[in-house]
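seq/struct pair 1
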Amino acid sequence: MFRRLLIDSQRLVLPSAIRMPATAVKVPDKPIASSPLPPPLQHHRLQHTDDRSVVKVLNMESDAGLMVDAFSQIGFRLNNGLSVVGPVALFPKTVLSWRVKSVADINEDSLSLFYLLEPKIDLLILGVGDKGTTVNTNIIHFMKQKGITLEILPTESACTTFNFLNQERRYVAAGLIPPYNLSNTIDDHLRAQRDAKTLFLARHDDD
């Protein structure tokens, strides 16, 4: 099962059970708590004459670069409809298979794909799978010597961070490893109930 990520311009991850259309929607009167993401990021809030605020779903915009729509234990689904199995090297307009099996394979050689490119990327985001996964911190110093800032995050956080920075037109790349574990969320239960109801109605119509 893929866990879908819907990204809005106020830095929220929206559950797919309340998937929003690409058109603008009204923001609730009360503020919604969200986890801060690395600067520099800007809100994309549109102000109307009647003082309404609206947000845009970034990974549903037609002019957006590559973004991660969903991920699972076997791979990733992008906003262009492409599904990729296994670890990926993701760039603003390009996706490649990344030949690593786990975080143990992340080293100077496996990172050469990112620092040999021209023009050089500003930031490399590593999605290392599950929370609490440890990585050899020497790679941070190594990439700094190459003039590239390295951010190490759990895969889910790495996907959302890449989406935001790519939408900001930053020259950013991501090396993403599928997580080993996916805990069930309320969104997963709601989607399962919705799918079960749809299947029941389809069978009832056939009868």
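seq/struct pair 2
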Amino acid sequence: MKNLTDSFLSLGHWPFAGSFGFNTDILATNPINLSVVIGVLIFFGKGVLNDLLDNRKDRILNAIRNSEELRGGAIEQLERARARLRKVETEADLFRVNGYSDIEREKLNLIDSTYKTLEQLENYKNETIQFEQQRAINQVRQRVFQQALQGALGTLNSCLLNNELHLRTISANIGMLGAMKEITD
């Protein structure tokens, strides 16, 4: 290791007259080396760096343009979707209102038809009751009439001694019965 250090130290003692060598003085050589390296980099790397920066700038601008176009398209789609949503909501409200009014109308129609049906059934019931009452009354009348007639005939038969008077009374009663029967029919 000492040999390696000695060899670097011996490089520092080379003569400067017309020969090429290494300057190991760090403070004197670094700013010069850095300025040479930076100058070479600027001279040769300027075009490459400009091209890289221009390409990057173009890609960023293209990305911005594309995102703006996509944003514009998305905004248009959003507006169309909002318009469709408003239209569908309006139609839904219309259907809902019409549906409710149709339901109310059908409900009222059903109630009216139910009342009419109940009214008709009540009328039929009353007519049936009236008919049955009339039939019962007629049956009672016929029985009462038949019983009264039989009673009258029995009384007449027992009371009448004369055959001729008996026949006239029977004929008169038959005539009355015929007239009454026509009235009841």
